[in-house]
Amino acid sequence: MNKINRRNFIKKTSLSGAAIATASALSSSKYVERDKKSQYMGDFAAPKLDKVRLAFIGVGARGTGHAKQFASIEGTEVVAICDLYKDLAERSKRLCLEADNQRHKNLKLYHTNENDWIKMIEDTRPDAVFISTNWDNHAPMVIKAMELGSHAFVEVPMATNLKDLWDIIDTSEKTRKHCMMMENVNYGRDELMFLNMCRKGYIGDFLHAEAAYIHELRFQMEEQERGTGSWRTHHYAKSKGNLYPTHGLGPVAQYMNLGRGDDNFKSLVSYSTPALGRKLYAEKNYSSDHKWNGLEYNNGDLNTSIIKTSMGRTIMVQWDETSPRPYSRHNLIQGTKGILAGFPTRVALDGGVEGITKNHHSWAKGNALEKLYEKYDHPLYKRIGEEARRMGGHGGMDFIMRFRIIECLRQGTPLDQNVYEGCFWSAVTPLSAESILNDGAPQKFPDFTRGNWKSTNQLDIIS
Ligand SMILES: NC(=O)c1ccc[n+]([C@@H]2O[C@H](COP(=O)([O-])OP(=O)(O)OC[C@H]3O[C@@H](n4cnc5c(N)ncnc54)[C@H](O)[C@@H]3O)[C@@H](O)[C@H]2O)c1
Q1: What is the pLDDT of residues 37-86, one digit of tens each?
Q2: Is the CB of 169 under 6 A from ligand 1?
Q3: So where are the chain's domains?
Q4: What is the pTM of this model?
Q5: Ligand 1, residues 180, 228, 236, 400: which to mutate, most atoms within 8 A of Cβ?
Q6: pLDDT band for position 33 (50/70/90)?
Q7: Which of 39, 131, 273, 346 is the most buried (most CB within 10 A)?
Q8: Separation between Cα atoms, residue 224 and residue 234, nearest integer Å
Q9: Ligand 1 center to 155 CA (angstroms)
Q10: Helix (H, G, I), strand (E, B), or coil: what is residue 199?
């Protein structure tokens, strides 16, 4: 072992010891008991709001679409926007005014320093704050927003480590403010249809699911001074495990009703491949003294984790943002009476899919999907799917999510995703890192609900 490798080895082993200690501390002591003044937030409904006053932090690639579309939804007023960059804040203001120049006419902008978002919340006291910044900023922004009296909505993932996830839960329970990680994929047409079919029992009892975020994003390395690549590229070097688990996992977790009565996340094992692709890409596309060639890319290109649920079901979760191949989220669930799968969308049922296939040996897919949609489309999609397709945003799923957030806040009903679900889904990142550092050893999920998942209502089929 040469000197550098030996130093890395020592660093890794001591890191893994520290990591185990942190993990066990986080699943015991202070985190077991809920503060007496706090409230379980699983089925929480906030007082209804006639008009919802919104503020946005981070209007880059993702936040711009949020500001624009929320501004177009009835019953909203955008009161403020904050970004580090004046031009981005101004662009989003323009888009909000184009949506409705009366409703949003008092919109204020904040862009003078990295803490201006606190001043924005203090000045304008919004009902809801929407956070679409880099991952490391999610937890502090979510926590402060709730402490200052706003409901917090944050982009995926909720946070990147277990301590931050617990702190988010404790703050939501203490302040009695909603905190939702905005998993838009749960609102895709196929995902809604599969949820509907699962709830109606078409695939019987659940056995196994597969989820993924396989999306080749090396091109983001072109964003070097600002924009997604400027911060996300560093995670491929310094972070570990599955860095983006929730797009694939969120939908299958709701098919299986995890954390809501029946079943829950129990443990996880994880392995990653060697880390090769980012280094290769940097060497091919940038000069040897370029900053991307100065990074040590330590996180394996492709991560595979297997989750075991309390009832013994399994979920395979994969992640790869580097290797050249077509996009996939897998989106698969196997039951005792059939299978629903994505990429491409296909369905097979015991005894066949009525009017399409004769038995479970062939898939209903391709042109036959229209018949499937006709029969099994989710009522929510039937209600607003056409408007969502027109409004756009990942094929309409973004609009349906935004529409539902405002609808729930205005009606004073629970949100479709509670704070614990966002935390369970995001916890795959730190737990996969722990497992990898310990040669694939199983890691227990913390029970973020402190036992209350057993009496939490399942997500209804919203019509
Ligand atoms: N759900 C989805 O489909 C989806 C898609 C893309 C990105 N995302 C998520 O959205 C988030 C943002 O990603 P992005 O690609 O838009 O990144 P981005 O870099 O384009 O945008 C982030 C913005 O946050 C701003 N920001 C950072 N720190 C700030 C601070 N202290 N005060 C004010 N503004 C600050 C930056 O100036 C930037 O404009 C990430 O969490 C990402 O994972 C989700």
Answers
A1: 999 999 999 999 999 999 999 999 999 999 999 999 999 999 999 999 99
A2: no
A3: 1-29, 52-181, 186-455
A4: 0.94
A5: 228
A6: confident
A7: 131
A8: 11
A9: 8
A10: helix
